[in-house]
């Protein structure tokens, strides 16, 4: 078997080993996938050691995605723009390549699993941290009508708008604070880490209309804090980030193996775990 792993700290709750084992089973690919907890100050040594031992590919998670991006000798265009990497592998010259599959992960989950085509939609993204930066490029590529990035620290949302201005095409791309948006959006994506503390970004309930679809990039067994708030204010549908997690994993699997696993049965399996 060929060796793959996810590196993070902490790592014990990671669903990636389970997801990739299911992919390996389903596709018959000779993939063995483990979890590695890297000491906080030992990420690069952990990566080097893994590939020296013959490892074929790594996923990278919190808090090392930016370090993975810095460490790589080469970056795919989508990783370059994301400023963070969740996927590492060696090229034919044995040089370290960084990729980022998070952005296509959310777009595929929305479009393929939830029937939400982004083209022409009015989209509100809450948050402007690393997780949001990773998804802006792939969302813009689908040509929404509007993409509004709202954040507690408005300057960070403005910096993202400058960074992606050239990729916006016909999309109206703008930045603001949480209190500014006051009209219903077609799609609201929560990319803040506020819900980790059971907190809500203080956005007006006017952003939710009867047709609004809400997507929380977090996932949990129960409805997330943000999604519950959205339901309480009449959102049409809410989704959490489990599908995104499986879709980014499938894209990494494809990057490494050239084989695209089916995601729907894996998402279903994880829901009932
Ligand atoms: P991640 O990798 O999860 O994106 P991050 O880069 O630290 O982590 O970004 C966290 C995001 O959640 C930021 O947009 C942050 O707002 P600031 O940029 O103003 O710090 C947002 N966030 C975190 N805690 C929050 C809270 N309690 N209320 C609202 N927004 C919060």
From TrEMBL:
UniProtKB keywords: Amino-acid biosynthesis, Aromatic amino acid biosynthesis, NADP, Oxidoreductase
SUPFAM superfamilies in UniProt: Aminoacid dehydrogenase-like, N-terminal domain, NAD(P)-binding Rossmann-fold domains
Keyword presence, Protein transport: no
Record field: catalytic activity: shikimate + NADP(+) = 3-dehydroshikimate + NADPH + H(+)
Occurrences of domain SDH C-terminal (ranges): 241-271
Quinate/shikimate 5-dehydrogenase/glutamyl-tRNA reductase domain residues: 117-194
Pathway annotation: Metabolic intermediate biosynthesis; chorismate biosynthesis; chorismate from D-erythrose 4-phosphate and phosphoenolpyruvate: step 4/7
Residues annotated as the enzyme's active site: 65 (proton acceptor)
Subunit record text: Homodimer.
Reported function: Involved in the biosynthesis of the chorismate, which leads to the biosynthesis of aromatic amino acids. Catalyzes the reversible NADPH linked reduction of 3-dehydroshikimate (DHSA) to yield shikimate (SA).
Name of the protein: Shikimate dehydrogenase (NADP(+))
UniProt lineage: Bacteria, Pseudomonadati, Pseudomonadota, Gammaproteobacteria, Pseudomonadales
